Predict the 3D structure of the following.
Amino acid sequence: MVVDTEVMDALKASGAFLSGHFQLSSGRHSDAYVEKFNLLQWPQYTELVCQKMAEWGRQFGPRTIGGPTTGGILLAYEVGRQLGVRGIFAERAPEGGRSFQRDFRLEPGEPVMVVDDITSTGEAVVDTIEAVRKAGGDPVCAAVIVDRSGGRIDVGVPLYSTTEISMQTWAPEDCPLCPQGVPLKIT
């Protein structure tokens, strides 16, 4: 596991790294949670994580940075700004997955770096990579602020995370915090 102390310090200083008893969007319970918007509300922390993404992604020569809504909008803009290219975003598509809307267009074969905030399963990253392909672009790499999978996901292109966080999760019936009466927060 790769832990970047500078990024972890930013997550903690911004209040993004939380401890307690949480029900994740998957329905599983955890004793830790990363609230990305606590970090992304601070320009200096957003700039820091995007700088790390941009430095790594530069080697792939992206001409566009694409991110999924919602957190990926800010990240695509800032990574694009740092690399001197545009940042666009993919929204949920009516037919499922994601698509580039609002007249965002990609040239055939245009190299695109996909960015996102936090990944556990890679679903939003993969959906955005597929949106790049559907729009005619070439997804060359992907980067996230936090990888909660422990490096276990494969999104089909080189993937970089500014830091990894190992977070224990449990099925609700196996959660050790529930019988202790620790208040549950739904994320």
About this structure: The mean pLDDT is 94. DSSP finds five helices and ten strands in the chain.
